[in-house]
Each structure stands twice: as C-alpha cells, then as structure tokens.
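Usage

Read records sequentially. Each one opens with the input sequence:
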Amino acid sequence: MSARGRCAKVLPSELNKVCPERGDDPATHPRKMSDFEVVPNLQQSSSSVSRSRRKAHFPTGSNEKENLISWIPENIRKKECTYFVESSQTSDSGRIVCECGYLREQHLDDAAKPPIFLGKEWDPSRHIQEMPTDAFGDIHFTGLGQKTGKYVRVSSDTPPRVIYHLMTQHWGLDAPNLLISVTGGAKNFVMKPRLKNIFRQGLVKVAQTTGAWIITGGSHAGVMKQVGEAVRDFILSCSHKEGEIVTIGIATWGTVYNRESLVCPMGGFPAEYVLDEENQGSLSCLDSNHSHFILVDDGTHGRYGVEIPLRTRLEKFISEQTKVKGGVAIKIPIVCVVLEGGPGTLDTIYNAITNGTPCVIVEGSGRVADVIAQVANLPVARITIALIQKKLSVLFQDTYELFTESKLVEWTKKIQDIVRSRQLLTIFREGKYGQQDVDVAILQALFKASRNQDHFGRENWDHQLKLAVAWNRVDIARSEIFTDDHDWKPSDLHPVMAAALISNKPEFVKLFLEQGVRLKEFVTWDTLVYLYDNLAPSCLFHSKLQKVLLEEREHTAGSKMPRLQMHHVSQVLRELLGCSTQLLYPKPKHTERPRLSIPVPHIKLNVQGSSLRSLYKRSAGRVTFTMDPVRDLLIWAVVQNRRELAEIIWAQSQDCMAAALACSKILKELAKEEEDTDTTDDMLALAEEYERKAIGVFTDCYRKDEERAQKLLTRVSEAWGKTTCLQLALEAKNMSFVSHGGVQAFLTKVWWGKLSVDNGLWRVISCMLFFPLLYTNLITFREKRLQPMGCLARLRAFFTAPIVIFLMNILSYFTFLLLFAYVLMVDFQPMPSWREYLIYFWLFSLVCEETRQLLYDPDGLGVVKMASLYIKDFWNKLDICAILVFIAGLTCRLIPSTLYPGRIVLSLAFIIFCLRLMHIFTVSKTLGPKIIIVKRMMKDVFFFLFLLAVWVVSFGVAKQAILIHNEERVEWLFRGVVYHSYLTIFGQIPSYIDGVNFNIDQCSPNGTDPYKPKCPETNADNKKPIFPEWLTVILLCLYLLFTNILLLNLLIAMFNYTFQQVQEHTDQIWKFQRHDLIEEYHGRPPAPPPLILLNHLQLLLRRGLLRRPATHHKLKEKLEKNEEAALLSWEMYLKENYLQHQQCQEKQNTEQMIRDIAQRVDVLAELLDLDRVKRTGVVEQRLGSLEDQVHQSAQALRWMMQALRGNGFSPGEDVPPVGSSKALDTKEMDLEGKPEESRPPYHVLARNLLYPGSHTLRFPVPDEKVPWEVDFPLYNPPAYSADHKDMAVQDPFSLSLESLLKINYNTMDGLIDRQSFHGLYAVQDGLPLNPMGRTGLRGRGRLHCFGPNHALHPVVTRWRRNLDGSIIRKSLKKMLEVLVAQYPLSDVWALPGGSLEPGETLPLKLKWILRREFWPQFQNLLKQGTEVHKGYLDDPRNTDNAWVETVAISVHFDTQNDVEMKRLNSFLQGCDPELCIRWQVLDKRIPLHANHKELLHKVSTLLGAYY
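and closes with the structure output:
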C-alpha cells in the first residue's frame, strides 16, 4: 500500500514504474470540490469525446487521453488522511495503523507531524481532506484475455452530476434507457444451476435489448461475480457489435486489493491490474467482466459499505434524467434486482421501496431474498415477529445467533413495509406462469410500478408506452400495455409512432398500425420535415440533402444554413428517380403558409419544450396533409435502407406496383454512390426484392384481367411524379419486370398498333407493297370499327402501325444505302448527278428527323435535359457521327481541289451508315441478343488493346533499336515499331530478323529509298548483318508466346465469359431493349425518309403557326378519377392476395418448417420442465393445505377439551397431545394469487421510519406491537419536537414536566381545542397517548400541539361531463371531478384544506385559495354539505403524543349550471398566483396524499360514483 505515499511526493523513477506515461506531478494542496467551479459548466465542457465517437470505447485515443488528464484532476477528487492517530486495532500483519486504517508510511509526509490545533482525537470531518484524484484511466486485467475497462477514484462527496458527466461525455457512454441496480450477497453463494442460467440469460437479455446500464458493487465475489460471469458468457457467444453491455462497478477504494497498481497521477493508459483472490485476505478484487469502475474513497482502509450513499445518490440522479431518443423523451427508469443478501441488502430494498423504485426478488437465491419471497404473498397482518424469526432461523443458520430481539423487531417492521408496497415488489419464481425469463419479470415489474403510480389522466399509460418503445420490447407492449384495461385513441399514438420510425423499430410501427393509427392522419407536412430532420447522419441521403442545402446557401449568399424543406428532399429524389418523374414536393409559391412556431429540428418529446405531440394538436386550418402519406413514409424508409420498416409501409400502399418499382430505382441509384460495400450489397438486394414484389403483384393482376393489368403499366401516377410503372421499370433497368410476359404482350400490342397481332409478317409486307390488298381479308384489325372493307380509316390505321413504319423505314434505308453505294462506286462525277442530289436530299430528311427527336419534349423537361437524354443513346451518337462525317466529306467533295479526299471521307461515312443497320436488327429475337453480345465484346476488346499495346510497343521498340541504326523516317518508324509487330502476331514474321534470309536488295542501306525500309546493321566486308541473332530470336519467341498464346487466349476467354453471361439472360436483355425500338417507332412520323419531310412540315405548321400543343405519343394514359380509384382498389386487393400467398409459401418452405419444428420442440421441452416444477409446487401446496387442516383439527380438539374441563371433567394422566398452539402466522404455503388486503387496522403512515422534514428515525414498530395494550419492553422511541418560529401558537419545545403540566388535555385549553373525536385519551407523564397506538416517536414532531391537532378538509366535487353536457360514465358508474390544489414548495397535490388555527373556522390553506369575500358563502356550502369523515387521520407527522384529527365534508354540485359552482370558479380565478388549482377526474390513481385518497374513496362511495 505504499502507493498512497507516492501521490504527494514521488520520485520520477518510481512513478515510471507505476505509469509509463507521465507529466509533472500535479499539486497536492488540499482543495475541496467547492473550489472548482466546473459543475455548472459541465454541459459546455471541451470534451473531445463527442457522441459520434461512442461506437468503440476502447482504446482511448490520444486526444481523449489528453482531455481526461486535464479534466479529471480538476473536477474529481480523492480523500486523504492528513493526521496520523494511532488506533487500538492493528493491521493483518500486526503493524500499527491509524484510525483511518492506513499504515504510517501510507500517509502524507506532514501527517506524522500533527499541529497542535488538530487535537488528539481523530475526526474524519477534520482530518480527512480532498485533493485531486490520482487514479483514473484504462484498467487492463492481466492474463484474462485482454480485458480492458475504465476506472476512476472519486471522493465519497463527489456530486453525482460530475460522475454522470464523466461517464456520458468522457467515457463515451450513451445515456441508458434503463438502470438495473443489482444488489445482494457480497460473498460467494450457491445457486441452483437452472436458476443461475435463467438469471444470467434474463439479466443480460434485458440489458442488451433495452440499452440498459447494470450497476453492481464491482468486486469479484457474490452477486457481482454472478453478473460479471453473465456478461462474460454473453460476450463470448455474440459478435463484438452485439456484445457491448455497460456494467458499472461501484466499489469502495479502501477495500480494493492491489489498488496500488491503479495509482497514476497522470492516468493509467492502461493500468495493469492483477486479480489475486488467494492473497486478498479481508479485501476484495475487482471483477474483470465489468466495463467501468467507480472507486469511492472516504480516506479509510478496509471499511466496506462506503460506496452505498454515493451509489444511492448517483442512481437517484440518473433516474431523474430525461433521455431523448427518436423524438421521445423518457425519464430513465430504475429497477433493483436482488439476489441472496444480508442485513445491508434488506436496507437497500427498504430504501428502494421507500423511494418508489421497483424491486425484483429472485426466489431461491437464498437468505434475505428468500425471506421476502416466502412472505410476499401473505397478508401483512400475518407477517409477525415469530414468523420472521422462524424464517431467519432456517435461512440464516450460520449467523442466526447474531440476531438480537431488537434486530428481529427492526427486520419485521421493514419486511412489513416492503410487502405492503406490493405494486413495487415482484417475486421471480422459477417455473411461475408468465415469468419464465428474468428479463420479462424485470420489465413487468417496471410496468406494474408505473401502472400503480399516481398520475393525472393519460400520463401513466403514455409513460409505459414510451418505456416499451425505448426498450424495443414489443412483446411487453402487447401483453402489458395494449390490453382491455385501456382504450387507446389513434391520435394518442402519433408521437410514439414517430419515435418508432426514427429509431427504426418496425415491430412497434406494425403494432401501432394494428392499433388503428391511420397514416393519412399521422403524416402531415411538418411531420415529414421532422422525420427528414432526424435522418441518421451516416445515411447517404442525409449527406445529399446537406449538399443541396449548402448549394442553396451559396446561391443566396447567406451566412446561415437554410432550414430543410420538402422541396429540398424533392430535388434529391428527382436525381434518384430520373428525369421521367416530376418533382414530388414542389417548392411552395407562397412561403407564408403557417408552420410550427419553433424550428422543427429542436422539437423533442419532453415536458420543458414543445413536443412532437404539438404537431398533431393544432387547429385543422394549420395542419397540411400530404397527397400520399404511405408514399412519403415509404420513401423516407427506403432512402435509409430500412428493409423491415419499408416492407411494413409498402404493405399499406395503394399504388403498390409503382411504389415497388420506384423503391428499386432509388436503391439502385443510392448503391452507385454508397462507399460501404456491405451497405451497397444490402441496397442492391433490397432493390431486387422490390422488383420481385412488383412482378408478383403484376403477375396476379395479369392472370386476373389482362386489359386492366396493362392499364396499370401505362397509367399516369400522380403520386410518383406523373410517371408510369413501365417508365419506372425502364429507368431502374428492371429487366425481369420488363421481360414479364404481360409487359411483353403489351409491347407487342403497341408494336402492331391497331393491327391484330396474329397477322403474318409476309401479309404486312404484301399490303405495304400493294396497299389495295388492305381492302381484302388478308389483314385483320383489332378494332371492330375497322373491320368494314370500305373503311378509309383502315388505310390510316395500317400505315400508322409501328411495325409498318419500321418496315417502311427499313426499305427506305436500304434504298438509301444502295443509292449511296452506287454513287460512290459508279456515279461520282466532278459535278454531282441527280442521284447524288437525291442522296443529299435524303440525308437532309434524316437530319430533320434527328432534330425532331432532339427537340421533341412532351413532358416539358427542357432543351438541355432532352439533349443529354438524346446523347446518352448509343445509336443517336452513331447517327450524329455518320451525319458529321458525311457533311465533312460533302464539304471536301464540293471543293474541286479536294474531290478525291471528299470521296474517301464519304466512303467512311458509308461504313458508319452501314453500322447503323445493326439497330434495325435489334427487333429480331435471334439477331438482337447477338448485337448486344457484340457491343459487350467491343468493351472487352477496348480493355484488351491496352494490354496488347504494352507488348507490341515494347517488342517493336526493342526490335527496331537492335536491328536498325538511326531511322529518321517517321512513317517507317511506325511501321517497324507498331505495324510489323502487330502483323507478327498473325504470322507475318520479318524475314531479316534472324539474318538467314537477309537480302540487301530488299532494303535501303542509307534509308534513302522511300519505298524500302532501312537495312539492319551490316558488316562492311561481306554486307552480312552483325546484330545478335540469338537475342532477336529469343525476343521474338517470348513475344509470340505472350501475345499469340497468352493474350489472345485471354481475349477468347473474355469473349466466352461475356457470351455466356449475356446468353444466360439473352431473352431478358432482348425483351428489355426491344422496348426502346418499339417506343421510337410508336412516336415516329409514319412516312419514311425522304417523304418524312412532309410530316415535319405538318408538325411545323401545327406548332409554329397554329400554336397547337404537341401530341403525346409516349406510352402514357391519363385515367379519370373514378376509373383510377377503381383500378387502384383492384390492384390493392390483389396485392393483399399476393402477400398472403407469400406468407403461405414461407410457411411451406423446408427451412422455415424445420425452424418452426425446432421452436415447437424447445417450447415443448420448456413446458415439460415447467410442468415438473409445477407438480412439485402442487405437492407442496397440498402438504400445506393438509397442515392447515391438521392445525384446525387440533384447535377444535383443544376447544372441546377446555369445554369438557369447564364442565367438571378432569384430565387423566394419559391425555394425548392435541397439536401445537402455533398461530396461523406460521403458515408457509405460498399462495399464487394476491391476497385481498383490507384496510390496515393500525396507522401505517404514522410509523414510517424516517420522520418527514427531519433526519430523525422512528423506533421500528411492527403491526402487532402498535396497540398500547400489547406489551413491548424493547420500545424506546426517540423524542422530536420541531420549533415553528413562524407560528404564534405552539406547545413547548421541550418535554420538561413543568411545561407539560400547564397543558389541559381532553378539554378546551383557551382557544386550543384538545378534545378528541374518539373520546377521552390517556395521559402519561404529562403527555397524551395516541389513541391509535405506538408510532415510534415521542414529542409533537412537526405538529403544533400535543394531543389532537384539528383540521378541515372540504371535498368539492362535480360530475364529469361531455361537451354536450351529458355525464361521462365508466364501468356503468358516473365519473366525478374533484377540486385539488398544489401549494408552494410542495411537489404533490392535495385537497383544499388543512390544519385549523385556534379560534378559526376555515383552514389557512383554504383561505389562500378563496378570495376573502367568498369565505362566508363557502362556510354556508360546508354547512349544507355531508360529513364523510370525522376522526383520526393517518398522517406521517403523527407521533405518540400528537396526532391529526380532521373533519371531511363533501360539497357536491349536482347540476352543470349551479350558481354556487360558477361563483366558486370565478373566485378561484383570482387566487394566489403561486398556487395551482384544477378540477381533476376522480380516480384511485390521482396523485394525492394517501390519507386524502381515503377521503375521496368515501365521497365516491357516498355519491355512488366511479373510483
């Protein structure tokens, strides 16, 4: 323990051994926490650990480390003993220690030299001082698999908010959704293996599913060890992401073994800690499975329990915090879980119950837990001292002799008070129905406590639902909240619905929809803005929105980021959905439309600020609903890649096919920009799933009605930007959908126009070449009106059919190519012939048609957008290229000097025009896929050429440099390097490369002959080449090896892969690309070039001169509203069929069936196990019942014997025993049902151990010892009488006999009425005795007078009414409203009334409420009222010698128009502004004083009203 001495004076060498990272030793002057003004500014701390870094807590980064090193010593303190006083006790090794428990050398240097002013006796308040802490950082448990946690040494007086700030801001912990305080035995104990497993699994499950913090004592023993091992097992069985459970150990610094290794003034990063249980002695080691440690220091050594006060304060502080998540704010709930335990555990349970904290007692864990569990279902009256004594003798066999009589009385009193608060007590019994898991028991305990908590109106139910949403426990919500006990209005669920959406809890969204939430009412304009404001920052869509907002700020030159609006969202969606859709949320023209009065991003569901509920509580004129709420929520879910949530919302959609295709498009576009590969894969998989949904719905529709299904394809969807399902599928490249038989049948129908699809192609060509055949039966039409032979419309219908237009254009194009080829080869004169002029005219018509396609904009997209769409098409690029090359050739051709070059360029143009023929062949099912393969292979060739160029150039340059010296002719350089090297691949090997076939006549020695290459390096004598032939041959062999064998085979393999890949989807690809050709010729003018110019002229006249709008030739159809509504209803009906069919298929799936069977087997095994446990319980119950019957028989026999003995029958010597005289209180049978508690026979509030408004503790008085008649030798209550300086009349403060003899009891003592409503009361030693019995406290407490203190409580009620004036009923009974008030400096509500001052007829508190002029009228109301109570009032202020007696008068206004009630309301409006007054619905959960509730119960009984 020498480390304590180092904190003030440490050698550098020694400090380096303790902590490798060290700066200057901080000053160690004694300072108090109050010297640091850091607490008010905690939220403004410069902590570098922001919430965005909380995903991984360990290891600590350098910035975080520096921040901790500077922040912790300034804000967190430790305690040191500054004065050594020798103690009578010695250390474990027999050495002298100080009163604080530390050795002399473990003190500061100055501690051994005590100044005179400190005195001789050791006083912790004077001799222990605070100074900056010297132990914090990362704790690393050696030899235990690299386990690392956080730790800090804190003073026992540290404010809880400082510790909470450290945990949330510097340690990076998210605020918990639940706080689980585990308490119990501090020593190792034995649990049943099954119970141990159930406890471990349940505790970890509730922590993991709800995001809870688990708080324990932190040591490696007892219940703390059980919790640590539970967390360890969970982490080992789960992934790293799932295995993060916050387990906080709060231990006493002075009892931690090996704590010297944690001391490091500059922080231990990490501090190595050795867990050594063998040598720990009376100390304890820290548990390695905890994640965080708070080590509480009070300056002493070896004293346990130091941490309890700070732990209690910290837990209370955390439970008062409000956590906002997903738009919902909840007060962090706390639950206490108890295993085993001793006296300290009982105190913890009692304090928890007193503070309103629910407790879960695990039965079967031993000692205190079993004592409470075994008596929990008994009536309080049967929990006696004798019963508790028997339980303790069984469960505390080793330490039973330590229980004194006074300790038994204290335990009995505390256990009675614990059991009396049944709403806060939950007993977990292994095998109990509905409590198979500890996690369910814990959550049910919280809900039970919440349900039984006092509240106004809906607050209680709302709080429970918020808890369930925060914990993500939809199973608990279904079983505990959405029950028959409460009717939920759909509008009440809107705020939690928004929270469930934001926090991605699809099961809750589904539950709320089942409970009647209508999306049309839920989704308003402001709700959408709120949802988009709460997008996850990691979402790609969020970053795209921020980019749009940034661009707008730059555009407007503003300094602030503009507020998010839906038209910003619409801009991003337009990019994702494509140009075929219009803006889903147009920018409003008038920005003065009313909105929320505060910025939406700051809306939180808390009490202080505006809540999300305000979105739905505005007037009808202010709420703006969206056009399609399901679409809006679906988009919001899909852009965040939330699969389950989107699936639930899609199931609610009406325009479901368009919705699925749009989602597929959005996801595919987002996947292109997403950087995370896993997210990209998820998005693409989800996109495919939505495509399958669209196909499934369309298949069902097509099977049902082909015509209506095809209408769904071309119907203009207003909700999705006035686009169509077919257009969305094409934009998303959903080949599977487009290749569907129904879609292809529709395209074929469009392709044939008004002709019947079963017409043969030869018939169409025949009629096209000889149109009079149209008036025969050779061609059939689909429409009946076209069937008559003489109909002129037949001619128009035939020549406007896309297939006819296509065939005529083919014929025209072939004619153009033939004429072009003839001119190039036969008739190319210096002066153009008429045939050549015809070609120019033909080309002009083609140029006009391309211009029409470029400028044709029926959807109003704009010239720039149309141009970009036009350029994207490959065949349009080819057309432009051919036309430009032709114009270039024509220009050269018209200049006499460039006539020949012009012919060359025109020849190249002819090649390009011929390539354009491939587009025509795409309509063929045979040739179309092959053209696609060729296009794909061209890409392969392009990449292959890069590889080939490396080898060609490298070999060519090396060959040229070796063979030929200084070739200056560029063309021959190119030939030698590239051309010859390329031809070598195909077998044309140069003859001179090996020197054998060298012929000097075939080359030019000096390179002067322009038609011969330059000769290689030769010998001057015999003109033989001198280059190294062996090298050139090797290079040639390597070159051919890599190019001919490797690269060419690689190219073949690439071609083969491309061919197979396309061939597998040949049908799909062809069907998909077939649409483009069909749509092109569907909107193309019927005349072929060059006659098409007549159509262009007609179009120019219509648009230019007549100003007529363009005719929409696209595959769109605008339906009437009635027809569209019927069509969508039909689609929705078939969608439901599709979903049901999918569910049936999933159930019939083999894997699913195996999972279901496995689950059923597990349930069956669990039921069998439970049945065994229950059977054991039934046997125990029967044995208990048999014991009862035997006991009753023994009592009857004893009575018979007494009766016989009274009649003169003397007992003989051989009288058999008739059983024990034990009371019924020894009954041990555990009743499953809750006993019906009648009204307690004795006062309860008057026996609360802590007297209100003071630190005085009452003497514990169990129920059986309350009456004065019952002998209670141990009874020795403390005395307490408060001094009310503000009161003019009060009895003496002291209990001296002289002052007490002046008081006249049981009569009028001046103005003070000391008469009791219960008759004469006893007076003992000058003090009156409480007529209701002992209270555990002498004196008058906070009351003014000894004896009775009279009060008056008017109960003013009226009927609760609807807007129409009718009385509201519940359970067939009328409901009341009662007048309640909240006085200054009080947290609870109360009835308007209170203590009567001497000589007054109205209480002072009542006078505060009413104006003075109304006092006489109110007194008349009291005289006319009905007295419901007159006598003793069970009040926490009552003592043995002073008590409250009250008169409660019911003042009821029966009619709505009662004049007195209206006057009362008018006078209430002018009361004291510090008072709060309201009419509150009368209910048993109304938050009033408990004694006031009893008065309300009597009033409701009197009036026959609901309670």
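Summary fields computed downstream for this record:
- The first strand starts at residue 77 and ends at 81.
- The two ends are 64 Å apart (CA to CA).
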